[in-house]
Amino acid sequence: MDKKNKECFDLNKLSEKSELEIHKLGAIIRNLTAGEYFDMLSELMRKAPMFTENLLKLINRDGDRNTYKNLVDMFSLLKNMGYDKHEVDFDGMRDSYDTGQQRLTAMYAKRILDSFDNLRTRIEASRITGPLEDYYANPYEVSVKDWLDYHYMESDARKPVILAVDDSPMILKSISSILSDDYKVYMLAKSVMLEKMLSQIKPDLFLLDYNMPDINGFELIPVIRSFAEHKQTPIIFLTSEGTIDNISSAVMLGASDFIAKPVQPSTLHSRISKHIKHKQ
């Protein structure tokens, strides 16, 4: 069969909603392709009914040595796929099986089966039934890591992009924590790097600290407005120096709004939402 016609799965959706550590696996095994991982998922789904049947045999206390051997093979596949949630349960099942403790073996098998049924359902729901997009259309030519990174960026690109510029890493982390569910947040601690940053991303809104050591927020406005695509992009200042003069100066230079620190999450969300909608 042509590799391009094999089964494909939404790895991002699957890794977010199950115990499969696909991101970690892709970082460790850099030559593992997305297509090869798709093949493992397909193999898992083919073997799933037999895996379930063998676990049920142990639960009902009528399994034999072959039953256990088949489970060992399946657990090896699961581990290769980044699934190690039940490693302790499997060790317990092995030890109790070897010592003839059927009740304990059945308990471990039941716990594994309940979790596996959920995993199996998630894998089934992650199947891609339509054609792949042109970019990365052949998953056998792309590493799992690159595949995940690209498709994560694609799905995340639907969120409005916010660029926060502040010399305090703590404040940047706080802003990201407040906004990351609804926006794609980029953070910049060195204001001198803004122009280079804008050659790589296109924010829908800027959050600027007023008082920074290299270039302050006011001085960044002309840099932003020098980009044709940012002549009208909203700029919100975040500062503890919220005087009338500062606000007037910021507005005259092209700022859209002014939020005093410490920033309240509800205020930040409402102001950003207002300006994003106005821009759209």
What's the pLDDT, averaged over the residues? Answer: 82
The CA-CA distance between the termini, in Å, is 47 Å
Radius of gyration: 26 Å
Unreliable runs: none
Structural class: alpha/beta
Q: DSSP helix count?
A: 12
Q: What spatial form do the alpha-carbon principal axes imply? A: elongated
Largest sheet: 5 strands, parallel
Q: What strand order characterises the main sheet?
A: 4-3-5-6-7
Counted up, domains total 2
Number of strands: 7
Helix content: 55-70%
Portion of residues in beta strands equals: 5-15%
Order of helices and strands: EHHHHHHEHEHEHEHEHEH
Could you outline the blueprint of secondary structure elements for this entry?
Elements: E1 8-9, H1 11-17, H2 22-28, H3 34-59, H4 65-80, H5 87-98, H6 102-125, E2 127-128, H7 144-156, E3 161-165, H8 169-179, E4 184-188, H9 194-198, E5 205-209, H10 217-225, E6 235-239, H11 244-253, E7 257-260, H12 265-279
Parallel strand pairs: 3-4, 3-5, 5-6, 6-7
Antiparallel strand pairs: 1-2
List keywords for this structure.
280 residues; alpha/beta; Rossmann fold; five-stranded parallel beta sheet; two-stranded antiparallel ribbon; 12 helices; 55% helix
